[in-house]
Amino acid sequence: MTRKLYYEDSHIREFDGVVRSCAETDGSFEVVLDKTAFFPEGGGNPADTGLLGGVRVLHTFERDGEVIHRCDGPLEIGSAVHGEISWEKRFSNMQSHTAEHIVSGIVHRRHGYANVGFHMGEEGVIVDFDGYMDELELSDIEREANKAVWRDVPVTQSFPTPEELPHLEYRSKLELTENVRLVTIEGVDVCACCAPHVKRTGEIGVIKIFESIRRKNGVRIRMLAGSRAYADYARRAGSVAAVSALLCAPQDDVAEAVKRLLAERDGLSYKLGGLKRRIIQNEVDIIQNTGENLAFFEPDFDTKELQLLANAAREKCPVAAAFSGDDEAGYRYVLASGVHDLRPTAQAMNAALRGRGGGRPELVTGSVKATRAEIEEYLRSSAAGE
Question: What phi, psi does 14 have (nearest 5°)?
């Protein structure tokens, strides 16, 4: 059985061990040592990586009580090797995992909800609870969690005997009877857990709950802690600074500046809509009634504006076709008529111009993956064949 140094001291970064076995498997080598500080993947906690005897440890997992190090090179059985853990990754994982215990412990104490799902990765910690909490409640939980960090209380581990276990209060997803490791955060939480943790809550630095999504009768939250929270803060602060510079507004006033900009955009959009309606009406007014079909190309009309144009023009011709787009992306279209069922017409055009769409007999909408020249050639040839 591998001696698990991460239980003796979660902050061990380097150690020396002896290779007990080494077996090649699928192009890598599974190495077992007499003792290790590499934590194997488990309990929602990622595996440690690093260096072992000069080869890279790609993954670590547990099998039948033995910690298996998957390495990119072989190690000689019986040799003494030096191990180095990828410490920044390990410490960040410990910050995140202990932060999750703090938040889950507070949720359980306040609301009685259980942590029923847990995942930890580069994107942060995702936790599922079996009860719902709104944004205000989660904000209050986040505040209490950070107070626990700032109090810098100890985080300890214990291995109670099977006789002691029934008399202890602790959180656990499973019914456990033996080999139970309890992680205690003084005054905050007691939980069964196999992963390494920080020694004091002050090492976490900060806890931030970023997202919450209602799921069935519960809620899923995404949170960040420690170095990952700091990296996220730095990224967001950089984005705010960039937006602030673009808007020529102080960073604290960015939200209000964006609101003003959106209001100006909406006002200009309304004015532009009015101008487009006038253009449509003017364009149609100069058209004489004709027995020929008419086609219009407007580069920046949306579907509603194309409908206005085609509906207005159909009073002057058998079929009015309005297109908007460009040769690279293709064209949206609207066909309108007061005398023909346009559905067969649209079906034929879609087949010829790589399009799709449909609608009512008097009005159809769709899009084609064709150039303007191809559209105009098709309209000419179809009109000549009538």
Answer: -135, 155
- The CATH number given to 289-384 is 3.10.310.40
- Rounded percentage of the chain residues whose pLDDT exceeds 70: 98
The three-state secondary structure class of 167 is helix
d(CA 70, CA 96): 24
CATH class of residue range 91-234: alpha beta
**Is the pLDDT reported for residue 385 higher than 90?**
no
What global pTM score does this model have? 0.74
Calculate the CA 25 to chain-centre distance. Answer: 34
Amino acid at position 314, single letter: R
* Topology of the domain comprising 3-85: Elongation Factor Tu (Ef-tu); domain 3 (2.40.30)
Return the higher-pLDDT residue of 278 and 193: 193
Comparing CA positions, the residue from 190, 185, 189 lying closest to residue 160 is: 190
Q: List the domain boundaries for the chain.
A: 3-85, 91-234, 249-286, 289-384
Distance CA 29, CA 19 (A): 12
Cβ neighbours for 316, distance < 8 A, ≥ 6 positions apart? 284, 287, 288, 289, 290, 294
Cα angle value 40/44/48 (rounded, 5°): 30
Given a contact cutoff of 8 angstroms between Cβ atoms, the answer to whether 169 and 190 are in contact is yes
